[in-house]
Amino acid sequence: MRKNSIKNIRINEEVMRELSSIIRGGIKDPRIHPMTSVVTVEVAPDLKSCKAYISVLGDEEAQKNTMEGLKSAEGYIRRQLAQNVNLRNTPEIRFILDQSIEYGVNMSKLIDEVNRQGE
Which of 34, 35, 111, 117 would you label with 102, given CA atoms 20 to 30 Å apart? Predict the structure, then answer.
């Protein structure tokens, strides 16, 4: 199976949907910030591993705490994923902090500031 095959794209979307649902409603860890979202998911073609890119809207401390909370709940998340998604293998999940949304918001603020100064 190629990395960008239609089957792999569908698996990525389904795993992303389920991870979002599990993180939003299934985890009771207080370290996980309420404004946490799954940006994208890349499941390996052999279904053995998965990279989940997580975005946290908050300061660096909230981001660090959220990543620690997700790492500690990894077993629970994987078990829930196995129950909700029918895959041959349940992938081992690796959470990666994605700061692209925060970067975009900061750039937008800077552009607005420059536009105001130019007027």
Answer: 117
CA distance 70 to 8: 24
DSSP string covering the chain:
--TT-HHHHHHHHHHHHHHHHHHHHT---TTS-TTEEEEEEEE-TTSSEEEEEEEE-S-HHHHHHHHHHHHHTHHHHHHHHHHHS--SSPPEEEEEE--HHHHHHHHHHHHHHHHHHH-
Query: What superfamily in CATH does domain 6-118 come from?
Result: K homology (KH) domain (3.30.300.20)
Could you give the percent of the chain with pLDDT greater than 70? 97
Q: Model confidence over 90-117: pLDDT tens digits?
A: 899 999 998 887 788 888 999 999 988 8
